[in-house]
Design brief:
The protein is of the alpha/beta class. It contains nine helices and ten strands.
């Protein structure tokens, strides 16, 4: 049974002139438990639109979305909230993802308490464990986002996404703002977390080398259409980008 299945997903945007512009059209795919699937595409190809649509952060025009064989695109937003814990997203820009006026401690505690994952008497311990899992020391709790390095902020975002023990995480260009050293740290961390937690990932990226290294399977979005890449050579994938 797939963790995620998408059937004939279509999303278009309407402009003030009344023109509708299709971004993705008739997209279908599935992601199995413990997979790392890459979604490759040029900038503006619609790959982030797919990620946002399957989490209903953008509402698709048509199509079907299934989480663990349960259809979720046709239920109310209130009913969909129960799925938010199992399906998460980590964005490219960690700076804008974190609230600048709250410390790391305050931001992580809020989620533990909101989801009723622990009581106030044990929340400090849970925050420390979350930070430790992403390679961060407990002392970082008292810092504000602007006091952290880019790599530290992205690891805080990973820790935050893991709080609800999700089954599936969309990784939206999460290494594009990192240097080579921090990119490797983040990628190795995500692989290690997957081994422990059996999480499925969908990596949205335009970096062919990164997708080849990290992903078990690669899909490519081009002109709003999705194709699965059978030949996983860098040269062959580069040809798709040029088409």
């Amino acid at each position: 049974m797939p963790v995620l299945e998408v059937k004939n997903l279509t999303k278009e945007f309407r402009y003030s002139t009344g023109i509708f512009l299709p971004v993705i059209s008739d997209v279908s795919f599935r992601i199995e438990k413990n997979e790392r699937v890459g979604l490759l595409g040029k900038i503006g190809s619609g790959k982030s639109t797919i990620g946002l649509s399957i989490l209903r952060l953008l509402e698709p025009v048509s199509g079907e979305i299934y989480y663990n064989n349960k259809r979720v695109d046709n239920i109310s937003k209130k009913a969909f909230r129960s799925y938010r814990k199992q399906f998460q997203i980590i964005f490219q820009d960690s700076s804008s993802s974190l609230n600048p006026v709250y410390t790391v401690d305050e931001q992580l505690k809020e989620l533990f308490l909101f989801h009723k994952l622990c009581g106030r008497d044990s929340v400090d311990k849970h925050v420390d464990n979350s930070l430790s899992e992403t390679g961060l020391k407990p002392e970082i709790k008292t810092k504000y986002p602007h006091e952290l390095s880019t790599g530290e902020k992205q690891r805080v975002c990973i820790a935050r996404a893991l709080i609800s023990n999700p089954e599936f995480i969309v990784l939206d260009e999460i290494t594009s703002s990192l240097d080579v050293v921090n990119e490797k740290i983040i990628i190795d961390l995500l692989i290690e977390i997957q081994k422990k937690r059996s999480i499925s990932y969908m990596l949205i990226t335009h970096d062919i080398k990164l997708a080849l290294f990290f992903c078990n399977r690669i899909m490519l979005i081009n002109n709003g259409k999705l194709v699965e890449i059978e030949d996983k050579s860098e040269d062959k994938i580069s040809e798709y980008f040029k088409s």
